[in-house]
Write a structure and sequence with these properties.
By secondary structure, the protein is mainly alpha-helical. The protein contains 14 helices and 4 strands. β3 and β4 form a beta hairpin. Keywords: Cell membrane, Electron transport, Heme, Iron, Membrane, Metal-binding, Transmembrane, Transmembrane helix, Transport.
Amino acid sequence: MDPLVLARVQFALTAATHFLFVALTLGLATLVALTQTRSVVSGSAVHARMTRFWGQLYVVNYAVGIVTGLVMEFQIGLNWSGMSRVTGSVFGAPLALETIVAFFVESTFLGLWIFGWDRLNRWVHLVLIWVVTLTAYLSAYFVLVANGWLQRPVGFEMVDGAARLTDVGALLSNPTAVLAFFHVLFGGLLTAGFFMAGVSGFHFLRRTVEVEFFRRSMRIGLVTVVVSVIPVVAFGGMQFEYVQPTKRGGGDGAAAAVADFSARFGPDVYMPPRGAQVGLGLMVSMWFLMVVLALVALVKLPFGRWLVRGRVFHVVMILAVPLPYVAMVSGWVFREVGRQPWMVYGVVKTRDALSPGVGSAAMTVSFVVFTVLFAVLFGVNVWLLARFARRGPEGAQLGASPPAEPVSPAMSPTF
């Protein structure tokens, strides 16, 4: 099979899988930080327990997501060295900043937060989770700066066949990055809102004794869905002003772009595959379903007993957990597949970005290994989340004091 096709499919699978972790991490970190803030400010015991329970699920998702991110970066270096050779000084700059933020700042403060329960002042401990949340946003922003440059390359010049950064401000303020950042931010909150509501609905179906705990959790999840669903589509819609003319699927702009590319780079298929439009249609469909559920939630929110007793509603919220995931992957397909045949739009073609010497046999082995690895990681994450979510707040180990060791008779004091 063509190694270019395998490399593209491999990157699609690894990037899409990793993004599923990122979305829940961003949203859940925010909700955990807000819940802990309520706990610290008001002294609410139920919010303190909610922080530990939902915080544990956040830590599980974050830990496995870090592994997928490392593996994804490895396969980028393995398969796409041609792009690094031409655009590394521009494309690599925001990725280097993301690495510093994620692996040095965010992970350090998260470790302090995990192991600082009942050891640090409660206000200091609260600051830690907010630092973790804000650095997670900053990390996502730098990744989207890099991706936004692939979509709309700005602030650079070509010198001896290599891109050189000339305007840092243009790179960091690229509308394709800034608008995508807010789109992803609210998408993460939407994901976490449906996740929190779905887990709460599951426990209500099981006739949980933790009624107040999951009633509050359900309310937080639904409020997050209601607040986030419109900004998601708003920031998504604003990005269409900067969409490449060929991605729009036709018209004078697309014809002019194809003519320009043909004159500069020679004949090629400059219109994107039809899969890009399929991704757009599926994304819009998922958003429509989430809007309907948000409207239902808006009706139910004033009536607390409906949140507890509405068993059909609980089933619906459980089934709705995958909706934002499907929407995000579909939107990613539209964004990335629609850029083809370009790795950097109008600058570097995807086939030229492929690592030289990558043959079909090596690419096939790499594809199988990475696909199996990511399938295992995704399965492990789903299993761990389901396991800890099913246990409920009583099974939360985050911040729990270690059990006291029994005192043997030989060590007992004698009176």
